[in-house]
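Recall the central idea of this unit: under ordinary conditions, the amino acid sequence of a chain determines the structure it adopts. In this exercise we apply that idea directly, starting from the sequence alone.
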Amino acid sequence: MRLMKSSFIFAAPALIFGVALTCTLAGAQTFQQIDAPGSTSTTILGINTAGDMVGAYTDQNDVGHGFMLSGGVFTTIDVPGATYTAATGLNDNGSVVGFYSAPSGLFQGFLLSAGTFTTIDYPGARATQLEGINNAGQIVGFFVPQRTPTTQGFSLKAGKFKVLEPRGSTRAQSNGINNTGVVVGSSSRTFSGTSGFQFSQGTFSSIVFPGATSTIAWGINDSSQIVGYQQTGESVVTGFELQQGTFTTFVFPGALQTLCFGINASGQIVGYYQGQNLVPHGFLLIP
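Accordingly, the structure predicted from this sequence is:
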């Protein structure tokens, strides 16, 4: 593992975040659209117990930044010297993980804790992305090997990496981890498409949305509620929650695509949607 520490400097925080649309659905579920101020696109990728959120946005100059949204305050997260930064996960201790584009143009993972960035690369990898972190500091993500154009999932615990991919996978990534150490992600096989997976106590189990051509599991909370998205056909993408073997789908009103990425202990779900103009907007779904 290659570690690189650098001092952390927040960009000036914006004091107001945009909630351009609120829609209440059957079952008293409420969608809130959330856009970073001055952004051309916004994606929300993680949420913790307190309701703090992290994600990424693109500014008017087409530059990508990470962010944290806490208590109504939007704060930009930029890795020093990076040309692109995305914050993908956070825990209840305020530690944030994500990835950034290095001067070489390849992605590298980062951990932001107590005001300090630490670069984390899977040993020998061409590129690394960190996707989730739990309260014990266990991290999940995926990497691109040096000589193979594919991705492999991994977990990182107490400084030790472990490859996580179901047997027979040609491509895999680990996307989320809860406080009991259960991991969710996705994997592909040559002839059977892409399916989600759950890894618990050394055992993989498949997550397949009925009738879908692709199922991606992305987030999990301590109640084992799993969120992600599924694709049917060429362009139909809907978010889902999986609880006790039952799938529930979510579509932001009027959206062409809805993707869910994170869920907290209260069942609040975050992600993004695309409307007719195909511009990504972040959302919070309140149960």
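Residues 2-286 form a domain with the Neuraminidase fold (CATH 2.120.10.30).
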